[in-house]
Design goal:
By secondary structure, the chain is mostly helical. It has a single domain (about 1-215), classed as MetI-like (MetI-like fold). The chain has eight helices and no strands. Helix 3 packs across helix 4 and helix 4 (about 85-110) packs across helix 6 (about 125-155). The radius of gyration is 21 Å and the shape is flat. The N and C termini lie far apart (about 55 Å).
């Protein structure tokens, strides 16, 4: 049994690499899109704010699994074809983008209005107020929940195996199909996910302590 599992480790690391790539693409794209749409939600014109709010509320109200199947099976019906990998990345990115919008909105709106008024009083432009007053303070409130959201992205990436993407979970299931040793392989998979997510959670706690100290 142990020999079979050791022999399968290189194959499992291939699946782990796919998991990390899916997670990294999801986190990176959703961060950029979420910040842009979050700024639109806070500072945009009313029609734009309503559209972003509709997008955020709708996507966050849909389970990730349903969103995965909708993108993979539904988008081709309107002429948008994805392979399994990019369908998974797209669905996870949509979900994480909606979350990032809310992280940013909460962080920016938690800044006391007096900070903005002080910036206006000393003659700062709107862009300068964002750059020098609002965003530096909002970053302290944005980073910890965002990093916790990154761990959710890693855990959510396990669902992409249902689309046939050869990620860590799919690799584990394939090895189980050959070795019939389910328990040790699932324990190994759980341990790998635990190491990744525990490291991210530890980073989040460290940032929270650091920023709490800076704000004291």
């Amino acid at each position: 049994m142990l020999e079979q599992i050791v022999y399968a480790i290189p194959f499992l690391f291939g699946g782990l690499w796919v998991t990390l790539v899916v997670s990294a693409l999801t986190v990176g794209i959703s961060l950029v899109a979420g910040v842009l749409l979050g700024c639109a939600l806070i500072y945009g014109a009313l029609p734009l704010r309503l559209l972003v709010r509709l997008f955020s509320d709708t996507i966050r109200g849909i389970p990730i699994l349903v969103l995965l199947f909708f993108v993979y099976y539904g988008f081709p019906a309107i002429g948008i074809d994805f392979d399994a990998f990019w369908a998974a990345v797209t669905a996870l990115t949509l979900f994480k983008t909606a979350q990032v919008i809310e992280y940013l909105r909460g962080a920016v709106q938690s800044i006391p209005r007096g900070q903005t008024e002080a910036g206006m009083a000393i003659g700062l432009t709107f862009a300068e107020r964002l750059r020098y007053v609002i965003f530096p303070q909002a970053l302290r409130r944005f980073l910890p929940p965002w990093i916790n959201g990154v761990t959710d992205a890693v855990k959510g990436s396990a669902l992409v195996s249902l689309l046939g993407v050869t990620d860590l979970m799919h690799s584990i299931n394939q090895v189980i199909g050959r070795t019939y040793e389910a328990l040790p392989l699932y324990i190994l998979g759980a341990f790998i996910y635990f190491v990744i997510n525990y490291s991210l959670s530890a980073l989040s706690r460290r940032l929270e302590r650091r920023f709490s100290f800076m704000q004291a």
